[in-house]
Amino acid sequence: MTLELTGTSRRGFIQASASAAGLLLAFQIAPKAGAAEAGVKPLNAYVRVAPDGMVTIMAKNPEIGQGVKTSLPMLIAEELDVPWENVRIEQADSDPKLYGRQFAGGSMATPLHWEELRRVGAVARAMLIEAAALAWNCPAGECSTDRGMVIHASTKRRASYGSLAAQCAGVTVPDAKSVAVKDPKDYKIIGKATPQYDTAKIVTGQPLFGIDVRRPGMLYATYEKAPVFGAKVASADVAAAKGVKGVRDAFVVEGGENLSGLLPGVAVVGDSWWAARKGRDKLNVKWAEHPTSAQSSAGFARRAGELAAAAPQKVIRKDGDADQALKGAAKTVKAAYAYPFLAHVAMEPMNCTAEFGKDGKLEIWAPTQNPESGRQLVAQTLGVKPDDITIHMTRCGGGFGRRLSNDYMVEAAWIARAAKAPVKLLWTREDDIKHDFYRPAGFHFLEAGLDAQGNVVAWKNHFVTFGEGPEKPASSAAMGPNEFPGRFVKNCEFGVSTMPFGVPTGPLRAPGSNALAFVHQSYIDDLAHAAGQDPVAFQLKLLGDQKLVGEGPSAFNAGRMRGVLKAVAEMSAWGKTRLPARTGMGVACYFSHLGYFAEVVRAHVDADGAVKPERAWVAADVGHQIVNPSGAMNQVQGAVIDGLSHALFQKVTIENGAVAQNNFYDYPVLRMKDAPPVEVKFLKTAYPPTGLGEPALPPALPALCNAIFAATGVRIRELPVDVKLLKA
Amino acid sequence: MAYKLNVNGKVLTADVDPDTPLLWTLRDTLGITGPKFGCGVGQCGACTVHIDGQPVRSCSTPVSAVGEKKVTTIEGVGADPVGRKLQAAWAEFDVAQCGYCQPGQIMSATALLKAKPRPTDADIDAAMSGNICRCATYNRIRAAIKRASGQPVEA
After folding, report:
1. What pLDDT, on a 0 to 100 scale, did the predictor assign at position A31?
2. What is the spatial distance between Cα A87 and Cα A71, in angstroms, rounded to a whole number?
3. Which of A623, A567, A576 is nearest to A599 (CA)?
4. Do A677 and B139 count as a contact with CB atoms less than 8 A apart?
5. Is there a contact between A1 and B140 if contact means CB atoms under 8 Å apart?
6. Which of A10, A63, A202, A215 should we substitute to test contact with B (largest number of B Cβ atoms within 10 Å)?
7. pLDDT tens digit string along B45-77?
């Protein structure tokens, strides 16, 4: 892995390293957002230029590790034409009037901002040129820019952006739609591997995260909720908690029934989090009976089997006649696939700091992926006007979709108001695992038919999921009618049945896809082997020779998928590698979040069944431009290993209405010793740039499971992988 | 009870109960927030600090057990040439995604290189598998350790 490094982080680091004593200072000289600094002129909501030419660019979206605090300002800086070394980045507050929607989700930051933010930079540049042209009394069209300077070549006049910024107030703001943008061949920042802006702070342990927030007079809180989601407090010994040294207050919060809102519980507030935590141990909370106290994962699986025995409650896709085609098929394959609930386990446990001012206005510091929905939730629950709430977005220690929900934000606000003090609420890891918005479990009952040449002539899937009927699936529990290989098999039927439940669910990195890819890409591998054909060749044949299938948001570009599949086969020397015993290679491909990904995993299975992923190869097509190759590579490598972690280790089990797991000792995630090297290749295609936080994850699971099949002949039909099935 | 702690070369006083974990003494009482809370049970490594050069999980170490031993956190590890070299390698390889676990990763890596200046892949697996990175930056963590120990990095 070779990275070309540019940018302030590295420079900043070298400065910092030069003198240990000067370490803190070196990173604290950046100006504060919105401060009225002498001579610092905002050109627009995103850009301020100081007289010394230092440019401050606002990072609009939450940073959860996906790298947007660096990559989105790169788009602006490129078109503004300033040296990256002169750029400082500040995290914006949540302010949709200035910045539009600010969220981290759906791998949408790049596709939504690729045009817009380059044009923000281009507009600011045009204003600086205009200011220079006015001063020099020459046509703006004769001026150019270079590295933070406006230049009039024929008269050899030059002026720094810093000297011009003050004069921009009077110039006409050009139309963003028509302002000129650079030819990509002239890019100096976009496309260069650029370290994350916060790197120096991260490696020296400076405060950045929600958990690091400190306010004068701040107290610390912990909040205990019922193991059965939404159960009410029957009794709690708040007096005992208050008797613990350092505890300031303890009280019952009545809460509501909405699993996404403020749930019933008991808050303990103390001088330190440890004191509050010790107070909590004395609460001896008794919880009221709840209608979902008997639900369980085992019960859901039983019910899924019952539903699968009947016709689907709703058919969401019907092409041709799958039943008839199955009867005429040369070979049929039946299989049931299942996957469990998953927790997100972001490394930074849920937390939020809330402080009411004397004027009744509320200030919030939150690691959140979705601040505006938090504002609405807090406003509605506490009866505070939305405009009286300020939300500062801190860096998030991971998100993965968990922080799209703001339950911890409303809890912090409620507790701060009750405690009459600024409060930092911090969850334990156990709170986090037992009170998540889980990736929903799911059950697929599949049947497919092959003709004598091994072509897929029939495909049926009865998907049993959760919800209030097939029209109202639970969050992230749906499957669309265009799920691959829908539209690629002549006789194809997708049916859906749902069962009611009382488990909060929500998006987990590549929602839907993270489960559906496992099912469908494993099953296609199943069929390839049934047909006696090479899995890559089989999938290419299934993709056919069409280019674009469907239109608009449901369009699937089979040409792009064939491109990545062929590329990954070449990268991994697919079919050309002699492998040791109990070692196999598996392939899978998947389209999600506008990205086309094909992946190969090589895995070895020990005699005791333990699976060791040895190497992964990824071919990706996310369009014609990678904004930050360093961040992009990191996202893909991490997503692939995250997917392997899902497949090998992760499982949330519901027992007696509650989550059975507690912490990393019974909810394991993948560690260094199991992490394979991941080789990544980005294909450059003619399409607009799209996002990378998610789409690399889904194919990793089936690629691994298909490798396990190649190594052992055992088909993994239920996640996580049960090593007992794999013993030699 | 008042404890005198030697943290990053300075003697600091913390008035806390004896059972208070070193992590919370550092974070809430002394304002040293580089060590991170991840699990509270010594399973994730985000809270790793050094006590007399040995890596320990500060979430599971009561303050009363520290005594006069020298505590080093991520804020102070750059004063050590090995720590500084690792921080530089972490920056060079742009290791972090969310960055939350990285202080703990760097503290574990520093302890590794002090014990084994040229660790093998198996040494890295053994020393670093107590530290979880949910963003799974493991490829780059390995590369940074190799670079800081003067070994070739896999292309």
Report:
1. 32
2. 12
3. A567
4. yes
5. yes
6. A202
7. 999 999 999 999 999 999 999 999 999 999 999
